[in-house]
Structure formats: C-alpha cells, structure tokens
Amino acid sequence: MVPLNNKKRTVSGLYIVAALLLLGIGLFWGLTGGLQYLIPGFLKESLSFEKVRPLHVSSVVFWIILGAMGAVLTYLQQHTGRQIYSHLILKMQLLIFIFSIIAILISYCIGMFGGREYWEYPPLLALPITIGWIFFLINFIKSVKSFRKQPVYVWMWLTGIVFFLFTFLESYLWIFPYFRNNIVTDMTVQWKSYGSMVGSWNMLIYGSSIFLMDKINNNKTYSHSNIAFILYFTGLFNLMFNWGHHIYTLPTYAYIKHISYAVSMTELFILGRIILKWKSSVSIAKKNFHLAAYRFLIVADVWVFLTLLLALFMSIPGINLYTHGTHITVAHTMGATIGINSFLLLAIAFDILNDTCRSFVPYKKIFNNGYWLASISLLVFWISLIGAGIIKAKWQLSTPQTLFSDMMLKLRPFFIAFFIAGTAMTTGFLLIIYPLLKNQLLCYFKKNSKEKKITGYYPSATFRIE
Amino acid sequence: MAPEKLKHLIAATLVITFLYYSLHLYLSLPVKGIPVANGVQKGKKVWQQNNCTACHQIYGLGGYLGPDLTNSYTLRGPAYIKAFLQTGTEVMPNFHLNEQEIDALLAYLQNIDASGKADPRTFTINTNGTIEQ
Ligand code: HEM
C-alpha cells in the first residue's frame, strides 16, 4: 500500500468544492424561477424565464456532473491505492469544465442560446466539454489498469463515463440536417440521448455511493456479490432501452415505445427488492444514523423508492398520457435530481471533504437543522408539484377546455406551496454546505494540513454527528 | 461458466444490442431526407436562438410556464400567433422579431403542426396500458 499524498488528492476534492458552489448558485436561480411562476412578468425585461430556467437547470446539472466526477476521481485513487494516472490531466479537466460552465452561464445571461432543452447554450461550448470528458475517460482507464475481477462500482464508473460521452455526442447529432430536418426525427434522437444520459450520471453516482457504503461497513462483500451485478445489469438494460417513455405521444415508431414500456417494467424488480429489504435497511440505518454521510444515504434511499414508484407509473403509456407535459414530470425530475443525486453527492462530499484540518463537530446543530429542513421540505416541494400536475392533467383531458391562463391561475396555491417549500429547502441545503465549504477554505490557508500523509486502505473515517 | 466470463458475456451482448439498435434507428429514422422548405429551417433557428422551449412544449416536452405549441397553428391560426409574437404577453417577452423571423417561425410551427397531434384527448388507452391515436 503506497501512502497517498494528501496534497495531490485534494485536486479531486476541488471538483466537489466547485460542485457545491454550483449547487448554491443553482438553488438561487431555482428560487428566482419559482418567483416568476408566482409574479407574472417578474424580471421579464432583464432576466426572463427563458434565461432563468437554463441558469437553474445547467447550474444544478453541473453540480451533479462535477460532483460525480470528483467522487469517481477521488474514490478511484482510494480503490486502487495508487495516485491518479496524470495530475496534469486531472487539473486540465477541472479547468476546462470551470471555464466552460462560466461561459455557459454568461451566455444565458446575455441571451445567447443554442436553444435545445437542457443544453441551452451555443453548441460550440459542447466542444470543450467533450474534450474535458475525454480527459476523464483517459485518466480513468489508465488509472484502473486492469479491468479483471473488479467490484461492481468500477464497472459502473466505466459504464457511466463511456455512456455519458456517447449520449452527449448523440445529443448534438441535430447539428446535421439529416437528423434535424424533421421534428419527429429530431425529437426521437434528442430524447434517446437524454434518456440514457441521465442513466449515465446515475451510474457514476450510484457506483460511488456503493463504494462509500463498503467503506463505512469496512468490507467489500456487497460490491462483489451476484445481487450487486444483477442490479447493475438491470440498470444498464434500462439506461440503454427505456428512453422511449419520454416520447409516448410523439408520432415516432411504435416499436420504440413498446420496447421502452416493457424494459421500464423490469425496474419493478428493483422496487420489489427495496420493499423486501425494508426491515433490514431500517435496522442498519438506525445503527449508522450518527454518521453524517450515512444520513444522506438513508434519505436518498427513501427517494429512490418514491422516485421509482412514480417513474414506474409514468412509464405506463396510459398513465403517462395524463402526467406528460405537467408538473408531475417536474416532480419526477427534481425528485430524482435532488432526492437521489444531490443527497448521495452530499453523503460523498461529507466523506471526501472530511479530510481537512478542522472538525465538523462544532457545526452539529447547524447540520442537523439543515438536514431535517432539506429532507422535509423536499417532500412538500414534491407533493405540491404533483398537486399542480394532477390539476393540469385533468385540464388537458377536459372538453371543453378553459383557457391556459385560467388553468394556470388555478395552480397558484400549489405554486405558492412550491415556492415556500423551495425556500425552506434552499435554506436547508445552505446550512449543510456551509460547514463543508468553510472548513475547506480555512484549511486551505493552513499550511500544515497540506503535508498530512494518509496511510491505510480507507483513509478517512466519516465524521460522526453524535 | 465462470462468473467473470458470464459478466463479460452479458455486458458484451447488451452493448452490441444497444449499438445495433442505435445504428438501426439512425439509418431508418421516421422521416429522413425529406426536403424541408427554407422558411422552416430558418424558423427552427429563430425558435432555438430565442429559447422558446424554456416556456413552451412541443409534444409535451419543454418548459412548463407557457402552453404546448404543437398544434397551435391550426388551433389559433397564423394571424393570432403573429399578434402574440409582435406584442408578447404579461409573461412572454416581446422578442422584437422582424417580419421575416416571424414568418419563419410561423412556417416552423405549421410544419410541426402537420407532423401529428399532441392533444392527449386524441388518444385511446388499451387495457394492456398502451395508447393509440
Ligand atoms: C438541488 C436542488 C435542485 C435541483 C437538483 C433541481 C433540478 C431541476 C431540474 C433537473 C429541472 C428541470 C425539470 C424538468 O425539465 O422536468 C428543474 C426545473 C425547475 N426548478 Fe429545480 N432543482 C433544484 C431546486 C429548486 C428549487 C429550490 C426551486 C425553487 C422553487 C426550483 C425551481 C425550479 C423551477 C421553477 C423549474 C422550472 C420548471 C418549468 O420548466 O417550468 N428548483 N429543477
């Protein structure tokens, strides 16, 4: 076991710091967008919703992507017990992403759009992101060296990195007239890529959280077990073939929809397993509840269940007909990106950034308040979006149909609840992020922390909260 | 079979099937190579440059602050849409588009309208959960 030099490894920690900053920025834009729902015409002249929505969505998507990269790059070194293949590539990758993200956010502010949903910046900016991602791939493959007899999380990381690259490039096929000329064709390929892309970053995050779980339990039986691989292959199967559930109403090939419907239902297996394991999950949760990182793993588990349940319903075309185009879709998206992705990344952040010169213990109260505030308000946030979605779903299928603006007026109480819950959730998240960033900053200026040597297989114990 | 070999076999099967599925789709896209009027192309560009998708959906996909526009061309008619675009609304900004840009957008919306119907009321639900139009 080669001792790891802490200074070098903190470059991968910087990914997490940058990601946390983006989370803060994204939350701010989320609230601004929420206000625009409540106050028609709010900031219409300077920062209208077509700017605020991508500012929000891109900030939080890059929180997830940078966080996932930081998690993989850190845990990879802990897994192999070796330094990363190239520190130069590691640094360049981070710089490329930071500059690209800044350019992307500026392009939205000044109203320069590529205008594709989610990737709404000018397409030229996709180039540095692709290059940065290729760096990630090279550094990963060279660091792992041999892919024989690897635990499930290494498979997941490789899958996530390769498929993100594939689907990201695929989402730019529209720049060729062949793919763009017909709206149905264009949207088919667009949603093929988006559907699988989300699965790719989930692979990176789930893989990292399995690593973290093994680390907390101090054994690797799960990540080599058959069930871990069965769940991985079920996930991969869905990543590849379930994307058609986004486009059930699009007049594209029927076989795409039938395949997706059938494939999506295989996730019932995952749902069933969660239910069966409920009791033992609760008892393990109780045992580890004092660990900050573990607390986020628990709340994410609850959200895996809720999101999967909603997703399964929405994947049935007959039900999707109602939910599609309503805020139930937003509930699903934000439920998954906050409840699962963000909470898992926070678990990982507390583990990785714990390795500083300062303890988190003085922040126990702040942390506890933030944790409960974020967890509970997310539920209210989610339910209010579903409420708004149900009313819109009824409106969509009603004849005669009232005006769109009248329907939106009816949704107001739900949007008010959504905004209040969103404010509480933002406060909760900020309370959680605060100690993480403050300790990092203070330690950065304290020289001795940089020289600390790390030995042993699992360098940092996750901080205790009680 | 050794478990390691089995894993590789499953992974390889999935990856090959996925690549085949993707390639098959690219080569047999629903409507490929049909020449599209210039106005439509330009309209799509104006649509993207102004990020209309942040507030509007096409076939139910997009942002949710404004209405779905898939069939707005027949539903509202070109004159109504033109008026909307020239003035904006309480929520929708006035994009200060010129005459050609508005015409191009209209051609684009007409093209989308002709591609199919997004209204959920035009579908029927089968007992096995699938839908038909
Ligand atoms: C970690 C925190 C958050 C994450 C990861 C997140 C993620 C997302 C994502 C992925 C979307 C796109 C949804 C879709 O297209 O279906 C979205 C939309 C949105 N989010 Fe968030 N969000 C977060 C917090 C918030 C907060 C606190 C608010 C404040 C109320 C908020 C307000 C909105 C609004 C208004 C939209 C646009 C909905 C529309 O299209 O009309 N978000 N968010």
How is the topology of this model organized?
The complex is a heterodimer of chains A (466) and B (133).
Chain A: E1 4-5, H1 6-38, H2 49-80, H3 87-109, H4 126-144, H5 152-170, H6 177-180, H7 183-217, H8 221-224, H9 226-241, H10 254-265, H11 267-276, H12 278-288, H13 292-314, H14 317-323, H15 327-352, H16 364-396, H17 404-410, H18 412-444, H19 448-451, E2 453-454
Antiparallel strand pairs in A: 1-2
Helix pairs in contact in A: 1-2, 1-3, 1-18, 2-3, 2-4, 2-7, 2-15, 3-4, 4-5, 5-7, 7-9, 7-15, 11-13, 13-15, 15-16, 16-18
Chain B: H1 3-27, H2 38-49, E1 57-58, E2 61-62, H3 72-76, H4 78-87, H5 99-115, E3 124-125, E4 131-132
Antiparallel strand pairs in B: 1-2, 3-4
What does this structure look like?
The complex is a heterodimer of chains A (466) and B (133). Chain A has 466 residues and is mostly helical. Chain A has a domain of 139 residues. In chain A, 75% of the residues lie in helices and 1% in strands. In chain A, strands 1-2 form a two-stranded antiparallel sheet. In chain A, helix 2 packs antiparallel against helix 3, helix 4 runs antiparallel to helix 5 and helix 16 packs antiparallel against helix 18. Chain A is globular. With 133 residues, chain B is mainly alpha-helical. In chain B, 52% of the residues lie in helices and 6% in strands. Chain B has a two-stranded antiparallel sheet with strand order 1-2. In chain B, strands 3-4 form a two-stranded antiparallel ribbon. The longest helix of chain B is centred in the first third of the chain and has 25 residues. The mean pLDDT of chain B is 93. The chains are: A mainly alpha (466), B mainly alpha (133). Chains A and B meet through helix 2, helix 6, helix 7, helix 9 and helix 10 of A and helix 1, helix 2, strand 1, strand 2 and helix 5 of B. Bound molecules: protoporphyrin IX containing FE. Protoporphyrin IX containing FE sits at the interface of chains A and B.
